[in-house]
Automatic annotation (TrEMBL):
Domain AB hydrolase-1: 44-291
Name of the protein this chain belongs to: AB hydrolase-1 domain-containing protein
SUPFAM superfamilies per the UniProt record, alphabetical: alpha/beta-Hydrolases
Pfam families xrefs: Abhydrolase_6
Superkingdom of origin: Bacteria
Length: 313
């Protein structure tokens, strides 16, 4: 392991913002990523919209003795440079395998072993965690590669329900054209949102959350590019449920009690009749579950090996 990687294990999470990322050249792309911990189990972590791998620093501090967390900046985020115009599930898998094979990572043994610089051996498995948008990517990966996963950890995950507006703007040509024009001239959308809020058709949390990504022209341009770019990640919920049961895949779902963006009801429906390998946990928080104040609670549950009767915990 490199000297830079070792530094990541010694510095507390509140100091990570000042650390430079690690870089991997993969095909024609440059992947920026963080490594937290030095445990025997390999855990890939996928961040939310507009964020970076640094979001998992606090969780990495709590899990670092048991897991090695590898947290890439997803394409169009952080310092990653992705030159292709498309990104699909196989591209994500290839990216993660390249990171696993990078010589900066130590061997992991869950349940197989991998020598540094070789990548996963046949039969070895890894865990995947996804927060918000990263949850949708993790779900899609689990659907295509379920036998290669040791655990699926979903933190306020997108992807458990098809959002009509996301479908319209990314899966249809006319909707995508309207989306582009709206991001260039959003005045009509702002008026519609203000009217909906005054009529109590749009709650304050979603109103503020939406304005966070629409007020600035660059943010609107990024929103169009990112939504369109990740359009191929469309997990099939029924197929996923079947695959999780068949593979007896340990699946943990975390939600915020006060989250108005992604509610725990979605997790309850998803986990219905899923068996004792699936657990749903409700935290005293909103949508931003990766805050340092939640890290110890989430880590304690991940490190436990209990069975999870159906229902929220």
């Amino acid at each position: 392991m490199t000297e830079q990687a070792s530094r990541y294990m010694l510095i507390r999470a509140d100091n990570f913002q000042s650390l430079p990322p690690m870089l991997l050249h993969h095909q024609q792309h440059t992947i920026s990523y963080q490594v937290f911990g030095k445990g025997p189990a390999l855990l890939f972590c996928l961040h939310g919209y507009g964020e970076s791998g640094l979001e998992f620093a606090a969780l990495g501090e709590q899990l670092g003795n048991d897991y090695t967390l590898v947290c890439p900046d997803l394409p169009l985020h952080g310092k990653t440079s992705w030159t292709d115009k498309s990104f699909e599930v196989d591209d994500l898998y290839s990216l993660l395998m390249a990171l696993a094979a990078d010589t900066t990572l130590s061997a992991y043994t869950t349940p197989g072993t991998t020598a540094p610089g070789t990548g996963p051996t046949p039969g070895s498995r890894f865990s995947i965690a996804g927060y918000s948008m990263g949850g949708r990517l993790a779900l899609s990966l689990a659907e295509k590669y379920p036998a290669e996963l040791a655990e699926l950890i979903l933190i306020a995950p997108d992807g458990l329900k098809i959002n009509f507006w996301y479908w319209l703007t990314t899966q249809t040509n006319c909707g995508n054209r309207l989306f582009r024009k709206t991001m260039q001239r959003p005045a009509w959308l702002f008026r519609a949102m203000e009217t909906a809020r005054s009529l109590r058709l749009l709650n304050q949390s979603i109103y503020k959350f939406t304005h966070r990504f629409l007020d600035d022209p660059q943010q609107r341009e990024d929103l169009y590019a990112r939504w369109t770019f990740f359009r191929h990640f469309r997990p099939n919920k029924k197929r996923l449920q079947q695959l999780i049961r068949i593979n007896r895949l340990r699946t943990l779902l975390f939600f915020g009690k006060f989250d108005r963006i992604i509610t725990s009801r979605l997790g309850t429906r998803f986990a219905k009749d899923m068996g004792n390998e699936t657990g749903i946990f409700l935290l005293e928080a909103g949508h931003r579950l990766l805050k340092p104040s939640n890290a110890a609670t989430i880590a304690k549950i991940i490190l436990s090996r209990e069975e999870y009767p159906a229902g929220e915990k």
